[in-house]
Amino acid sequence: MAVSGARQRFTHFLSEAKRCRSRPRPPVPASQVPILFREPYILSGYRPVGQAWSCYVLSLFQRHNESVNVWTHLLAAAALLLRWGAEPPWPAGPPGAPGLPEQPLGLYVGSALCYLCCSVAAHLLQSRSELAHYCLFFLDYVGVAVYQYGCALGHYFYGSEAAWRAGPPGPAFLPGAALLAWLSCAACCFAKSYWRRPYPPARRVCTLIPAGLAYLLISSPLLHRLGAAGPWGPGLRLHAAHMALFLLSVLFFSCPVPERFLPGRCDFLGQGHQVFHVLLALCSFTQLEALLVDARRQGPGAFGEEEVLRACLLLPLVAGCCLLTALLAGRHKHRQLLAESGGGRLGELSLAEVTRD
């Protein structure tokens, strides 16, 4: 029955797409889209603004300058999910024996899927309107914040040593990670809403400072292990690899290379942001492998059930606070766009329209 209903809904979607002439229009040069949608040194491949929502969904199979950004994270989400389901993180112990908590690792995987799916939605649908652009990237920042706290959970429960947890960072680690995750989301929403293209360097600084502080805190249990004497085991080598991949991805996120030196030649393939997406996906995949190794390495009974529950409940709290921040930023931007347009065409693109065609 459920399969039949899903088939009927899919058939209805396809018939509506044909009825509304919702075949995506061909991509256009940068001069034919508002400045908000233009990327530095990317001269063509932009999807026209104002098409039906289904056009942007169907543009998943169209060649444009966001195609690679969408597919890299879409495929990464599928690969991460398949890897997680391929085998249990650790073998089952004797009945009744205490074991490591599985919830933090599952929440880490869920947080990674969250940021990947939010990124896919933002890059796939953002060309619908200026309001949709802002709201979808605010949602993208929510996904990144959720992933930040998911990484903190994984590092605390599987990647940390007992000596580090007993030290000063231990008790404040997860609450601090939750706070910095929200601050990162709030800073990104503010910077996106406040500054206009061409973006000044202050915008990048505003977004990178809280994210950098969050990264230093989240990485502190791993840095403690990396700095300890003794050879690096398989898990630690994987952690070192995912940290190197992340730092390299930040370089491509911050600098528009190689398109800066090849304007117009990287419009479809080779953009710095595409390299950033690939490196970040590899980082997440390597991080999962490292946490799986750590999960098998950790001894049972290191954490109490109450401690695990408190830590896991912080994740929906972080997600809720970030989502509320994004909604408030979207409402503020909607009012601002209405005021700038004098209640003209933008008045038709209400906040409710972000969720319907």
TrEMBL record:
Q: What is its main location?
A: membrane
Which cell locations does it reside in? Answer: Membrane
Gene Ontology molecular function terms on file:
metal ion binding; nuclear steroid receptor activity; steroid binding
Q: Which UniProt keywords apply?
A: Membrane, Metal-binding, Transmembrane, Transmembrane helix, Zinc
Q: Where are the transmembrane segments?
A: 137-158, 170-193, 205-224, 236-254, 275-293, 308-329
The record gives the membrane topology as: Multi-pass membrane protein
Q: Which InterPro entries match?
A: AdipoR/HlyIII-related
| GO CC aspect terms | plasma membrane
What the entry lists under Pfam families is as follows:
HlyIII
Binding-site positions, Zn(2+): 123, 273, 277
* Family membership noted in the UniProt record: Belongs to the ADIPOR family.
Put simply, this protein is called Progestin and adipoQ receptor family member VIII
Species of the source:
Gadus morhua
